Amino acid sequence: MPRVVSRSSGSAAAYDPYAWVTDDIRSSPNQMDLEELTEFRQAGYLCGGTDEEANYEAIVPLPRERIYELNFHSPRVPDWIWFYKSMFTQVGVRIPFSDFQMALLNRISVCPSQLHPNSWASIRCFEMVCEYLELPASVDVFLFYFNLTNPSKQGKARKGFLSFRAAQGRKIFSLFEDSYHGFKDKYFKVRPVKGRHPFWLSLEGERLIQTYWSFGAGSNPFVKVSYKRLSAVDKNIANVLLAIFEKNHVNPHLLMGEREAGRSYILEMSATVTGLENLMKTFFEASDDENAEEKGAGKSEGPSGEKEGQGTETSGKQGLGGRVSPTHEEGPADGKATLSPHPDSDVELIHTPKKRKMSSSPEGVLTVMERNFDASKFIDSQLIPGTEEHFHATELSGQARWMYRTLLRGAVIARKAEFELSGMEALRRKLESSVKANNDFKAQVELLQGQLSEMGGKLNAAEEKSSFIAERLKASDETVARLLEREMTLENQLNAAQGLVVALEKEREQAISEAKAAKAEAVDLKKKLKVAKEQGKNAILMTEDALKAQLKIAAPDFEISSIGVFKTIQDGKIVDMPRK
Description:
Number of strands: 7
Strand content: 5-15%
Order of helices and strands: HHEEHHHHEEEHHHHHHHEE
Number of helices: 13
Largest sheet: 3 strands, antiparallel
Distance between the termini: 86 Å
């Protein structure tokens, strides 16, 4: 039923649905024109130049539109979403968002454009750090390190941008920009091309993330995450990040530059903390040596990756840490390889026999899975014997590179396994609790099925009542429509009658003014008539006196008293003229 606003109720335009938005956002119209937006698209900023570019189109908003406005024609299933230009050009955000970004936005219930660009930089840094350290990007871990705040200076009743700020005592990233300005007037709409599905909607058409600005954004009670709420795996991730970056915060500009430079930056920071910097350096050098030596043919290789029969320079500047391998000899009496001086190098690599294979599980030797396993005894008794000749015949620097590379790989494997092993007990407890919860759930399902059948009958009755009410409502709508039409007709007739009354009032006023003028003219004519009568009477008397004077001269003996202007002759006699 349409809403009717009477003339006496005031104007509906007085209601402002965006009164809660801060003034700095409301007073920032878009300054991004079509040419600038076209250059933005051609540069591949929106989707990173991938095939996704063809799925979306960017639109310049109207001059009156602001970034916080929603589409009133389609508020529940939005056909567009707002973005700031700087999110893509300066922070490096791309659409469609990653799974981590979608999960985070869904948790905090904040649309992308209501989140400050500095916060987007923190999100990007967290993702990249986790990727380079081969850690899963966890929403809980991120919210453990960052608190969502409303930095509005206009009180709690107003909201602008929401920001992620480092939790007290848990800062791991520096700010992307200490004072971020000049981005509020550069924004645009993005909507899917016809026939394509947008990333912010599910296949059923439900919103996966918040798409418009909202006063209630960020009010989800699960936004704040304490250490106790973290899972065992997430606690390990949080501990690792804090150990690496607590004292040496990540610089977003160094991290979000060129990809390989950012990866090296993070790995160097982690190596500084874990003491693996030299191991990594040696590992990469050994990898380069292996790549170079694999090009040779007919040469066998030792564990150090160096070719046999070829000298290795160790002039004090070569080898790990600038060490020089000593020159020594061993007699051939024991059948082992011999090291002898070389004129061009300190050590000459001599052919070594193949290492004897050891049984994977010797008789009487404990395995690593047994509780009383002695690692040092196992190494001395089972691993080292038979390998002395192999290592004695190899250059010390080559052995060091090979050992460091092996240690580094083992450390990486151990780091990955640490998270899995630490979570096994938690997974077992979760499984037990899940079984119990499943049994409880089955009982609840049976109870709910009974309640569902009962509610089914009530629902049928409610549907019948609803259809009856719908019919009544439809009839009421038709009646209201007829009354509205009748009201409009009467209002038109009333307006016409009011116009006629106004015209008649004007004519009446004109007639009154004309009557007053005629009355004044009549009074004036009466005065003139009276004056004319007096003048006529005087003229007649003067004429009578003149006639009498003339007659007296002409006939002195004639009786002139009977003669007058108002006399007439009747029957031969002079008589008074009859008055009419």
